[in-house]
């Protein structure tokens, strides 16, 4: 058995946490042990008003470390491959235009291709990069060949862009399977890329037309694409090239694999 002697504590020192002796409860006095003891003393903890305030503040501070800050989700990147000579493409523009107006969790880009130019003249928006990008997706999805209007969702789903039901279904599938752990954050004129990708990753910087500058029927037609370099993970601050109209950063597994993050950027002043 262990014994401890107790002495009274004055009200001026009662802001600290004390043990109250059950025998002195009716007297309302605070007691504390006069020396340390290795046994457990039957007692209950008393908190004064000031002590309780400090305890709550400490708990709130700990909860801030326990719960991570919320991070905005990357939008689903929808890529439409189209041509002015494609008869089904106007329907795809309408479908994706409605999606763009109704949702704020998608980023739609139109890549114009030139392999239908023989049907009605050269498509002025067509780029060689569009055709190369689509060919890579054809291989990944094991398709017979490229077609328009094809839509690709975060590099992991694809379907005809003129089918509203299939488009909505593909968006939802892409949202469920969106990769985690890679973030893009704007920092002044730069972006900060952080996380751990599954392997080698490409960073793309895309210029596209938006708002009044887009005089075509396409949704956000791409005008230029720049490779900012490979990325293997870790925190990296990236200086961005000048943006001509509207721009976006795309972080994608090498070989046009799954899109790990995408961020539309505000247009430059005066646009």
Question: Can you give a write-up of this model?
Answer:
This protein starts with 5 loop residues before the first strand and ends in a 6-residue tail after the last strand. The radius of gyration is 31 Å and the shape is globular. The chain is 23% helix and 31% strand. The protein has two domains: 6-66, no CATH class; 76-265, no CATH class. The chain has five helices and 15 strands. The relative contact order is 0.13. It has helices at 49-66, 89-102, 117-120, 128-140, 164-176, and strands spanning 6-8, 18-20, 31-33, 44-46, 76-82, 106-112, 150-153, 157-160, 182-187, 190-195, 201-208, 222-231, 236-239, 246-253, 259-265. The protein has 271 residues and is an alpha+beta fold. The strands form five sheets. Strands 6-5-7-8 form a four-stranded mixed sheet, sandwiched between helices. Strands 12-11-14-15 form a four-stranded antiparallel sheet, with no helix packed on it. A three-stranded antiparallel sheet has the order 9-10-13, with no helix packed on it. β14 (246-253) and β15 form a beta hairpin.
Number of DSSP helical runs: 5
What order do the strands of the largest sheet run in, or round the barrel if closed?
6-5-7-8
Structural class: alpha+beta
Average pLDDT, all residues: 80
Question: Which spans of ≥5 residues are poorly predicted at pLDDT below 50?
Answer: 1-48, 58-71
For the report, how would you describe the main beta sheet?
4 strands, mixed
Q: What is the rounded distance between the termini?
A: 82 Å
Strand content: 25-35%
Q: What portion of residues is helical?
A: 10-25%
């Amino acid at each position: 058995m262990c014994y401890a002697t107790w002495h009274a504590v004055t009200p001026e020192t009662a802001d600290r946490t004390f043990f109250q002796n059950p025998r002195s409860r009716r007297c309302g006095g605070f007691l504390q042990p006069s020396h340390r003891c290795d046994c457990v003393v039957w007692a209950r903890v008393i908190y004064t008003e000031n002590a309780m305030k400090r305890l709550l503040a400490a708990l709130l501070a700990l909860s801030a470390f326990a719960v991570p800050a919320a991070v905005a989700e990357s939008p689903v990147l929808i890529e439409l491959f189209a041509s002015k000579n494609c008869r089904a493409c106007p329907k795809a523009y309408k479908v994706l235009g409605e999606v763009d107006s109704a949702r704020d969790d998608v980023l739609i880009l139109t890549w114009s291709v030139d392999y239908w130019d023989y049907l009605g003249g050269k498509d002025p928006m067509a780029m060689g990069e569009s055709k190369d990008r689509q060919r890579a997706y054809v291989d990944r999805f094991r398709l017979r060949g490229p077609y328009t209007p094809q839509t690709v969702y975060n590099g992991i789903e694809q379907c005809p862009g003129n089918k509203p039901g299939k488009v909505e279904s593909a968006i939802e599938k892409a949202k469920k399977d969106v990769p985690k752990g890679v973030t893009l954050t704007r920092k002044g004129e730069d972006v900060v890329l952080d996380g751990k990708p599954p392997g080698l990753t490409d960073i793309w910087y895309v210029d596209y037309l938006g708002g009044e500058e887009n005089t075509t029927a396409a949704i956000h037609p791409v005008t230029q694409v720049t490779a900012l370099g490979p990325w293997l993970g870790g925190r990296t601050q990236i200086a961005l090239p000048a943006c001509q109209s509207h721009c976006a950063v795309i972080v994608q597994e090498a070989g046009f694999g799954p899109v790990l993050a995408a961020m539309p950027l505000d247009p430059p002043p005066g646009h």
